[in-house]
Amino acid sequence: MKPGKSLLLFFLPGTALYLGLFVYPTLTGLFYSVTDWDGLSPSYRFVGADNYVSLAGDIVFRKALGNSLKFMLAVVVLQTVASLALALRLTRRNKRTAALRALYFLPTVISSVSVGFIWTFVYDPSLGLLNSLLERAELGNWTQNWLGDMKLAIFSVAAAQAWAHIGQMIVLFVAGLQAIPAELLEAARLDGGTRWQVFRRVTWPLLAPAAALVVSYTTIQSFKAFDLVFTMTGGGPAYSTEILSTYIYGAAFTNGTFGLASSASVVFLLLVALMTYLQFRLLRADRVSY
Amino acid sequence: MRWLGRFALAFYAAVVAAPLLLVVFTSMKTTPQFYADPIGPPPAWNFSHYRDLFAGQTMWRYFGNSALVTASSVALELALAGMIAYGIVRSGRRLGGFLFALFAAGLMVPSQVNMIPIYALMRRLGWTNSLTGLVLVTAAVLLPLSVFMLTGFMRTLPKALLEAGAIDGAGETTLLVRIALPLSAPYLAATAAFLFAIVWNDLLFPMLLIGGKDKLTLPLALLQFRGEYVTDYPMLMTGVAVSTAPMVLLFLFLQRYFISGALAGSLKG
User: Fold this and answer.
1) Superfamily in which the B58-266 domain is placed by CATH
2) Domain interval for residue A207
3) Residues of chain B with CATH 1.10.3720.10
């Protein structure tokens, strides 16, 4: 049956909104990146690739790029390992696992601003939970200035980011684990496999697609993180937590260099597009069948 | 080895619960009580900070703004994306495939990339400090994700049912409203829950597009709050508790939808 003509009307409002407020701005962003617009004046000059050259020479931009990678790696490792370890213990369907899964998921529905406030408080050097607990456990010399120390700050923020999203990744891993047929695990155990052998030879290969999804989703999600870093440190101390997204915001709205900010966002777009593309390819290629 | 697993679960449960309990505890201490014991339970259930927060009308205002923006955005989103997803599923491979690719491509564009041009565009249109403008921008920016999710769901609908309806003479609108939408109800609910959390908690676009103090949404208000109460932790934590409570309550009652929505939303590929 040929679908009716009214389908075209169905497409119209959404596509119009999408083209007008999403596609068009994205394209004009590309245009701004080759101008020296400051965001306010009605006129600007075409400057070719000057903005991109400035970016390459800007030490803060290079730092932001490096920090984005550091942040991303820390979050991916922490989030993936923790969520997998916990998910492995949550595959049974009973009231207790459901309650725990819900508890772990709770931080995901909290706004990043709130998460940022909560963890800034936890990390407070004198009043915060972390240092207070360390003191009480007689580990007083392990206390740190978690957000004020240039070398630590980015990892402290990464831990907060992971805390907020581990629950979400647990849901993904549990779904992946529950999809593994019980008979395969049974058979492996009956054949005399130890828990580690069963995990390595049966569970892990079949879990690979879910693991790939968790890693790539977390990578892109942490690369795009803005709210949390902005709330907790604003990029400081001394740009040690400045990531690409906060750099773009700062270049545009603090320094008033819209042209430069647009060129940074083009670089950002290319990196995210590359990661998304790799994610799609990775998920297609990793199909183990049994 | 079994105890290690149990320990891990209990440990992480504490890691999640402790900061959240601390928020509640701190919000119920007076300043001297807080400095005396920053991390213990409050000596009494003291709601004075909550009263202070709601004393001026503004807190209710911010709640209202967040509720209005979130509800409108999600409703608009489901309507627009639902129609598009249905259309894609019913269209031939050329048109359907092209449109799907058009929206899916948007998934690769993070908000920070078009935030500057969108801000500039809204300024040109005179729509800064407009909640309507914020709703439209939010809807536009979420279309790639929503179309992607809903198309995936609608593809699983039984085609035979729609074909039978078409043979009986039903137009596309009837098919959509009386067959496709009712069948998709759980999917729409899951998508709605997922979108609701995203919009309610959004900081970036409200920060860019809202200027007036009376139009702030909750995350934005909370951030500005910090300017006023710089190190007044009891007050700050009260603000956090109040902004977070609605989402937590919604989550506790509608867990199923949030979790299935999050599952589907993450399966972008």
Assistant:
1) MetI-like (1.10.3720.10)
2) 49-285
3) 58-266
User: What's the total number of domains in chain A?
Assistant: 1
Confidence of residue B1 (pLDDT cuts 50, 70, 90): low
Residues B232-257, buried b or exposed e (16+ Cβ, 10 A)?
bbbbbbbbbbbbbebbeebbeebbeb
- Judging by beta carbons within 10 Å of its beta carbon (0-12, 13-18, 19+), is residue A210 exposed, middle or buried? buried
| A residues 101-130 lying closer than 8 A (beta carbon) to B | 101-114, 117-119, 121-122, 124, 127-129
- Interface confidence, given as ipTM, is 0.89
The domain that holds A252 is classified in CATH as 1.10.3720.10
Please list the residues that pair with B127 across neighbouring strands. none
Q: Chain centroid to CA B76: how far? A: 14
Cβ distance of B172 and A101 shorter than 8 Å:
no
Which residue's structure tokens are 């290319």? Answer: A270
Gap between the Cα atoms of A51 and A153, Å rounded? 30
Residue A43 resides in a domain: no
Q: Which DSSP string do the residues of A135-203 spell out, in sequence order?
A: HHTT-GGG---TTT-TTTHHHHHHHHHHHHHHHHHHHHHHHHHHTS-HHHHHHHHHTT--HHHHIIIII
Domain contains A23: no
pLDDT digits (tens, 9 = 90+) for B125-147: 988 888 999 999 999 999 999 99
Closest CA to B202 of B70, B79, B81, B71: B70
Cβ contacts (< 8 Å) between B84 and chain A: which residues? 10-11, 14-15
Q: Nearest CA of chain A to the CA of B108: how many Å?
A: 5
Alpha-carbon distances of A29 from A11, A247, B115, B118, rounded to whole Å: 25, 16, 9, 9
Mean pLDDT value of segment B174-191: 88
Q: Which of B22, B114, B219 minimises the CB distance to A22?
A: B114
- Cβ of A109 within 8 Å of Cβ of B38? The answer is no
**pLDDT at res. A2:** 60
